[in-house]
Amino acid sequence: MSPPLSLLPGLERAWDVELAGLRHGWRRLVKREFADPGEAAALRAEGLYVASAPGAYGHADQSAEVKRGAGSAHTCFYARDAPTLAEALELEARASRAAGAERREAERALGLLLGYPTCCVAAHTLATDQGEDACFGRLLGSGQTPPPPAVNNLFVLSHQLISHFPCRLDCPTSQALGERALETLHASDPTHAAALAELLAAPIVVWDRFRFVIEHPEHGPVIAEQLTHAPRLLAHPPYQAFRASLPQRPPGGTRLAFAPLAHPFG
Fold this sequence. Notes:
Number of domains: 2
Structural class: alpha+beta
Number of helices: 10
Helix content: 40-55%
Distance between the termini: 37 Å
Order of helices and strands: HEHEEEHHHHHHEEEHHE
Strand order of the largest sheet: 1-4-2-3
Largest sheet: 4 strands, antiparallel
Shape: globular
Strand content: 5-15%
């Protein structure tokens, strides 16, 4: 495996929108898949309420799809208070063991507890296939006229400003959440906010969560490992095959262009 490419200047670390929301009080709960035990311990020491959900998982060998029941990854919930944490664990357990209407209701209640928009929770809950590839496929196949807002760009791995699958790429409620997040970052770190805004607004060609090429106005073509060096990306066989084939690109892919961001971000 080749050494990873350098991370983009100004984006060497991701700003964690979920933890920012928890700390600023506009989120009560975070569900962290592929949780880091060190992060969980640090947040517990910070005074937040932390618990692991049962069950392990990992990525499928030949896709970016999450494979349940086998693997070394776990889910943690982080909450501002004990009752919210207890409710989240109960809803997660109910959703995993139930079926039909009972499962959908547990998923709906958990989505709302996580602070996701009602419209997006409803769309995800009613979807026949809730796998990541299917969710990306629905969004990419929904048409992009007019161009969706840049803050709804969820194809930038840990740099995304919305932490849910929107019902549509132009969802206005998701856009409001993304704009609030970017404004929060700008208030504390305007340089980071400007670099992130430039990334989010750049056109992109997407195949799946790990395989994409961003047409960055300053840095040229950007791929996933220039955004994160997460082991689950760097060790993923389909991503490594994609990287090795560049500049030749695989067939397919969907090109997205985003609406410009308003001042002071654009």
